[in-house]
User: Fold this.
Amino acid sequence: MNRIIILFIALCCIAACKKPLSSPYPSDTYFRAYGNIPLDISNGNYSDYLNAGPIVSDPTGNMYFSYFPRGVNGISGPLSLIKADKNGNIIWNKNYFSFTTYGEASFYGNTYSDNFICNGQTLFLLGLDTTGNWTILKFNCSDGQYIGQVPLAGLLPANGTVGSLWFGTGGISLATQGNIFVYGSYSQTAGGATSPVLSLIDPQGNVTWTKSNYPDSLNGSSDGEYGSCIYQYNDGSGSFEFGTLIGRAYNITADSETISTTMVFYHMDNSGNVLQEDSMLAGTNVFYLNTYVTKYYNWTGYIYRYFVFPSPTGGFIIVADEWDEYNYMRIKIIKTGISFVATDSTYISIANGSVGITGVAQEADGTIAVSATENLTVMKNVFSFLYEIKSNLAVTGKQIGLSSQSLYISGINVTNDGYILMNGQMQDYGLDTNHLFIIKADGNGHY
Assistant:
């Protein structure tokens, strides 16, 4: 039973970048940190360390993001939401209730922006309810009041169980006319191959249609296919691209198997009918299996999450997380034609380390803004990055960090007037902290 925690959390600003009068950057851009946030951690095994969720904005420039205390062994604490005005001043800060625990990736408002949207005057946040079932929470933008939830179990086929609606294998996304896409995966047998599921719901949560049978055959795969991203066309037709990722296992023995992955793109009409299917190989690798640990080798590039955007010059640009042959993460960028045939590609990588996507958004001129965080094996302060990708795949990057603290960007958003918003949490080296931050940058990444 949900227990509303009646607790007003006072949020104080501990730092804000002050620009010198000679700064060439706009005066309304900033880096602002918020800290010393009191938490109700008395009813759970929680630490002082905060996890920040994704960030969204409304048409007037107000911003919203979630946070929660990270617990021992991945237990997540009570959900909180913050609303700030366009200058970063807190309008309200609400503390809600705890949710069922399911590892670190199951909490409401996890660090991927495809789980949090602002739809008119309502916020929709994807996650687990207190019984462990996937649902969407709804909040008023004006005052943060919790106004209900949309259960998602009814979207699945008979006997289907949700395989995933998080960590890049599903989410929610705005559609036309205020409707909402909900996508993920399901399996009809425990441990069986997964298939993608996609639904269109109205703002009240009523199901318009659900699509769970797709033309691509798994051909005996031991893995499956799941939803990865949505791109809605702006031509008035209501048609869209549903991007999925399919894994197939071959040469299965007692101690190894070969896995190939393919990006599959379903061009669909506004009723959920598949009009055309295109695909692109996303990499292969061999798993070595034993009793204690899984080891990977023979990497040839392995995409496990991606986003699709229209290119201003025609076709599409795909931005993806990929493993390389050295077991490092890197960001792969692919330019394609209208039928998803690759015409060019490039990488964003860090020498002797890893960098992974934490959020993506497209600016008005077609530039793709990507927030990312490094994941280095060498112990040091962690830096985050803002990358901007042009239609010719030219990439500019800005390192975001402090000399004494690690910065983890958890989300990115582009406002109606062209500003880039990023948010996340700060951590002192070797110490848990409860400091949050917001960065507001101009269209060139200046703040």
About this structure: The chain has a mean pLDDT of 78.
